[in-house]
Each structure stands twice: as structure tokens, then as C-alpha cells.
Amino acid sequence: MENSQNRIKIKETIIVEGKYDKIRLSPLFDANIIELGGFQIYNNKDRLDLIRRIAEKNGIIIVTDSDSAGFRLRHYLSSAIPKENIKNVFIPDVFGKEKRKIRPGKENLIGVEGMTTEVLLDAFKKAGIDPKSESGERKAPLTKAYLYELGLSGGTGSSELRRKLCEYYNLPKMLSANSLAEILPIITDGDELLSAIEKIKNE
Q1: Would you tell me which CATH number, out of the four given (3.30.565.10, 3.30.110.70, 3.30.230.10, 3.40.1360.10), belongs to the domain 4-126?
Q2: Do the Cβ atoms of 161 and 170 come closer than 8 Å?
């Protein structure tokens, strides 16, 4: 059990899928945390309007599971809210099940509620939200042209290279090219990225 007195202060509102995710993050972060209620958000216009207003005022941080359902919810919110008001936190693919469940989910991936504190804090840091400060500084994403130049988008084998790069940096394998373009400048620099890609290609 984490010490709630050492919670990290975050100005943005954290958006999670359900109540168990909120319970998991509450001891770690001194922040407003809102549940989507899973796919119920699709039919809850009032909740979506609330999230829009909050995002416009202070910004939001989306934290969903790394399975396909989590990505669908993330994309739904991203299509309804201006990109500049959103920060995305991606948890890695960890196989298994949460302790409270009898059996794992369809994709055999542990969700936000089952992540260790170390993994969660690392995921926030990779999103540019430094635990040592109130909030991380947003860095400019990589351009589409540069992604193409690196072989990460638009070319033969680009999707497989992206998947392997996500594994290399412990990111969910379903990460899109656009999402990868946002997170890479935060977690690595140009030389290290080129070195990582070269290493992957030579394996």
C-alpha cells in the first residue's frame, strides 16, 4: 500500500477506464481522476462534455489498458477533444491477470489496475510527466516525413519495425505511428533512436 502523503501532484485530470483503475492510481497521484465507465462513455454525452470542458481548462491525461478495448476508448476521446489538450500515458504489454479476476481477459494482458507502482511511474515519465515536478514539458512530435525516413511509417515492413521498437522501449505493441511520434522525443534522443533502430534491423 502506497503512502498517500507522498502522492505526486498533477494539474491535469487523469482519465481512466473504470473504478479499479481509479483505486489503483489514487494513492500515487494528487489529481482529479475521472472514470469513463468503459464503453458506457459512448452513450454518455454529459460525461463526454464534462471531460471536454475539463480538458479545455487544465488538460487531461488518458491512461487506458494496452488491449484493443483500451485503445478504442483512447481513440474515441482523442477524436472528440483537441490534441493539444491531451497527454497520453501508455502502459506496457504485461501478460497475465489481475488478482481480483478469476481468469485473464481475452488478450491476456494486465490492465492499469494490475500494474506495479514502478511501471506506472515509468509510464507517466515516458509521457513527459516527470514525477519530480508538477507536470512535464510537451515536446514536439516527430514529423511524418522523419518517421518515413526512419522506416517507421508508410513503407514495406514499417508496422513490424514499429512493433519491435515498441518492444524495445517497453511500450504497447498496438501503438500507432502518430502516438509513437509523440512519445519518442520524450523517451529518447535522435542518436539513441537511430542506434536502437539499427540494432533491431540487425537482429
Answers
A1: 3.40.1360.10
A2: no
